[in-house]
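Our consortium's second objective concerns turning raw sequence data into structural hypotheses that experimental partners can test. To show how far this objective has progressed, the report includes one record in full. It was chosen at random from the queue rather than selected for favorable results. The single chain below, 142 residues long, was entered without modification.
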Amino acid sequence: MALNVLIVDDSAVMRTMVLRTLRLSGLPLGEVHEAPDGQAGLEVLQAHWVDLVLLDLNMPRMNGEELLGEIRGNPETASVAVIVVSTEGSDARIALIHKLGAGFVHKPFRPEQLRAEILQLTGMQDDAHETSAVAADGSGDF
């Protein structure tokens, strides 16, 4: 099963890093969509089916928590896997994110952390793929 993915982050550089990490992860990717804020992300979700949403919390127009609430509140998207990728990470905020059925990965993250969270939330099997592009010394952090 190829994953259709939506990456929502107001930083074009971070969207590129997340996409690069996904491509290096060995996970099967289908369509990949990007959005610079939650409102644009919601518009993408209305136009395209995705299996996974990766989103930041702090964004203009509609932040990540608001977008997550919209996703969970819509029967058509309520079961979509969501992972929040953010520098924000108080225990209370992470608990709320988990309560809404989403995963959380702190920025900066290691590629294998993101991959493991994706595998867990999507229920995909880990084929024990070793990403050769990820340096063993951790220099592949994003």
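The partners drew two points from this record. The first strand starts at residue 3 and ends at 8. The two ends are 26 Å apart (CA to CA). Both points have been shared with the crystallography group to help prioritize constructs.
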